[in-house]
Amino acid sequence: MKATKWWQNTAVYQIYPKSFNDTTGSGTGDLRGITEKLDYLKDLGAGALWLTPVYPSPMVDNGYDISDYTGINPQFGTLADMEELIAEAKKRDMRIVMDLVYNHSSDQHPWFIESKSSRNNAKSGWYIWRDAKEGGSAPTNWRGIFGGSAWTYCAERDQYYLHTFAEAQPDLNWENPEVRAALFAAANFWLDKGVGGFRIDAITYIKKPAVFEDGTPDAADGMVSVHTMTANTPGILDFLHEFRREVFDGHDIFTVGEANGVSVAELPDWVGENGVFSMLFEFAHVLVPYEDGECWSKMVPWKLTKLKGALSASQAGVAKEGWYPIYFENHDRARSVNYFFPKGGDARLAAKALATILMTLRGTPFIYEGEELGMTNVKWDTIDAYDDISSHGQYELALKEGFSPAEALSFVHFNSRDNARTPMQWNDTANAGFTTGTPWLPANENYHTINAAAEEADADSVLNYYKQIIRLRKTNPVLLNGVYEELLAENEQIYAFSRTEGNRRIVTAVNFSAEEAQLPAGFLRGVRLIGSYADAPKAALRPLEAVVYEEE
Ligand code: GLC
């Protein structure tokens, strides 16, 4: 067996710096706020901290619109604060992982400002410029991922530029070698500062098709998602192998690509010895509420077997070669207890159920801030209360599809990315202890009961369950290497699987339903390593019960 890499046997904790911990009273979190909480994160068991973008940015998409790839947004602090964070983390044997947003920059980046100024400036070819269709309309009928056309007209050039996401996020032209060199240099700048890895944003969109054509409309607006037309275009791996050679090779870091559009069958080209990244975020299991794509107004009822099938397929995809990040939450998703348990039920048990799966599947677990507390969704009364740019785009699209404002708002309640972006709930003082000022997004009102301080003191809390199960995950070699096998595959209440290595076998069983779920006789044998109820189950799993057994 190949030697284990440090990032395979750790837990990664994702921080949304804007919402994590504010030390200045500004209402937004900052880097010093993260440094202040390193002991909390160490105690939890995190070995790497992925920060969503902290670079200078107009913050149209909360930092995913970067205007300087080698600086720090003054809102978050200074480069010296970042150096201090990296050093303090290192002292505790934790690494800092940065987010590289290389499909697009901000429209306020000096590169774009120059590029749009004329058709013949030095950066003229750094973005994706096209002439209008005859008659002056956009070059194609592609819809950006946040809604509206993926093209914006620029009078200075009398041309349109492509933006896979918001208008303020023009796509960079990776075909241009100068662009690639500039991006690679910026990543190397951070490696020199000692970062432990990178999460690479929206990477499946960097290669565009050779010919830009209209697609068959997929919604009432007459447009087709840019995702359908450009994700994972052949040739993309050439760019990525160059990226690997120029930046990642030779460093003891990990890389995790955000790869919406890469199927399980393609994983070996992307991860592993001959791939380009250490790991890849796959989307199938978080897209179970949708038939196709992720249009919030087009959700479908789903059964547990769909979720189980998606997780098993990705486990199989990297069974021989490659490695997989396990996640249920991030800054783009609603809170997992609401998302995967839409019928409600005991939220604590639901959070522990997901934690149990997260920590016992094969792969590196990624925990999103507040997930370890069992934080939940918010439900605001008007669309104007939402900050998230995609919530507004999806709301408009739902209205166009003929839904009422109330229905459109219900899609936002269920899906909005703001659900995950409310302030981290530290304690039950004002604003959940996140800020002494006015928070940029209001804290979820349930912070009086769901918060880190209260959960530290409560042996039965979600937080203490996380601490225990992370320890179990990190100290049990079967959970690291053991072969995955799904059990009870047809069962619509229980997700169960085994992990086997040599003569050791560990079984996880989780009841997703709010009713008792019968187990086959003798299904759970041996020692209960952990469970979400105080005592062991008998013939059935109790509502939302999760258990892990090791056979003897
Ligand atoms: C990724 C990020 C998301 C961002 C988008 C555009 O999907 O995770 O937050 O809005 O890319 O950069």
From TrEMBL:
The keyword Hydrolase applies. One of its GO terms (molecular function) is alpha-amylase activity. The keyword Hydrolase applies. Gene3D superfamilies: Glycosidases, Golgi alpha-mannosidase II, Oligo-1,6-glucosidase, Domain 2. Belongs to the glycosyl hydrolase 13 family. NCBIfam families: PRK10933.1. This is Alpha amylase, catalytic domain protein. It comes from Selenomonas artemidis F0399. The lineage of its organism: Bacteria, Bacillati, Bacillota, Negativicutes, Selenomonadales.
